[in-house]
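FORM 12-B: Structure-to-Sequence Request
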């Protein structure tokens, strides 16, 4: 027969355990409060040291802007002004026609003035290089373009001439530049022939003709119009190599135009004692850069060509950068249109 439970003893044990647990919790709380008091005392000591200590200032002198010099570069390519982009054909991502083209052209030229004004607070900018790198027009290189373009090729040349000349006159009048240099490359779209011609590309280009006509329109501007694919320009002690970009292609790879262009640049540089400092081109409607090249975006923006080459969406944009006389390229900015 089992013994009866001693409930008094059970109650005493339970009470003792509860009391011991309460004492342990109070000890922990006391330790936490003590640690908090130590931290507060340290913060008080720091605050007192700051309030009573003597402030020592270290002057930072801003050098005058005359201590450095840079040349501004504005890159214009792939305007395709007479081409039409209907919003529905690109999922509403873009729309383009002659009226929109005119607005974007005006914004391009006024943005150059604004960026130069901003950068002149840090360096002297006396010279501007405005590069016209081709495909300013779309032309009739495909049959469908005869139906969709807003102007014929000859009318497009006249339309473009007025807007580019007006922009150059604005830069000349308002930019405060000592020199404006305009390197010109023809693109693949402005050709008069169905297929691209390498040896006689310039002679069969509406754009090449337009450049020569505009050279007579704006005196005091230095025009450099290439008859071939590459156009090298010496700026300070560096060579900048311009071209349209259509001699390099890719098939929608993950790296985009980077690897094909790097291969092309390496091939072009073989046999040269001094390789060009920078390649600048358009054609691919994709803005990107690395230490060896700048790929320009497009004024037309996302359209049928972008879809065809599997290019990712990007807003219409052109490129602006500074070339410091000593340090080389120091900054590159998109001109969003």
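FORM 12-B RESPONSE
SEQUENCE OUT:
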């Amino acid at each position: 027969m089992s013994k009866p439970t001693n409930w008094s003893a059970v109650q005493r044990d339970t009470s003792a355990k509860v009391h011991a647990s309460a004492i342990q919790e109070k000890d922990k709380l006391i330790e936490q409060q003590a640690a908090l008091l130590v931290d507060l005392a340290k913060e008080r000591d720091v605050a007192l040291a700051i309030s009573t200590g003597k402030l020592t200032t270290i002057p930072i002198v801003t050098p005058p802007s005359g201590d450095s010099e840079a040349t501004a570069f504005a890159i214009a390519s792939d305007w395709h002004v007479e081409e039409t982009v209907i919003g529905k054909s690109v999922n509403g991502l873009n729309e383009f026609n002659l009226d929109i083209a005119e607005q974007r052209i005006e914004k391009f030229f006024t943005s150059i003035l604004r960026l130069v004004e901003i950068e002149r607070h840090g360096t002297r900018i006396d010279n501007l290089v405005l590069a016209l790198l081709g495909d300013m027009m779309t032309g009739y290189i495909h049959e469908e373009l005869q139906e969709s373009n807003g102007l014929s090729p000859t009318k497009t040349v006249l339309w473009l001439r007025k807007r580019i000349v007006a922009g150059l006159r604005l830069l000349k009048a308002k930019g405060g530049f000592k020199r404006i240099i305009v390197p010109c490359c023809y693109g693949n779209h402005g050709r008069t022939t169905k297929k691209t011609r390498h040896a006689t590309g310039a002679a069969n280009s509406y754009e090449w003709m337009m450049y020569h006509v505009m050279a007579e329109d704006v005196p005091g501007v230095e025009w450099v119009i290439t008859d071939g694919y590459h156009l090298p320009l010496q700026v300070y002690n560096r060579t900048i190599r311009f071209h349209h970009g259509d001699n390099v292609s890719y098939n929608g790879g993950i790296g985009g135009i980077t690897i094909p262009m790097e291969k092309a640049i390496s091939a072009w540089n073989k046999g040269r004692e001094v390789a060009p400092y920078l390649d600048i081109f358009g054609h691919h409607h994709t803005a990107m850069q690395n230490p060896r090249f700048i790929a320009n975006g497009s004024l037309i923006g996302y359209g049928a060509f972008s879809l065809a080459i599997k290019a990712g969406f990007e807003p219409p944009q052109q490129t602006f950068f500074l070339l410091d006389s000593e340090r080389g390229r120091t900054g590159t900015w998109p001109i969003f249109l």
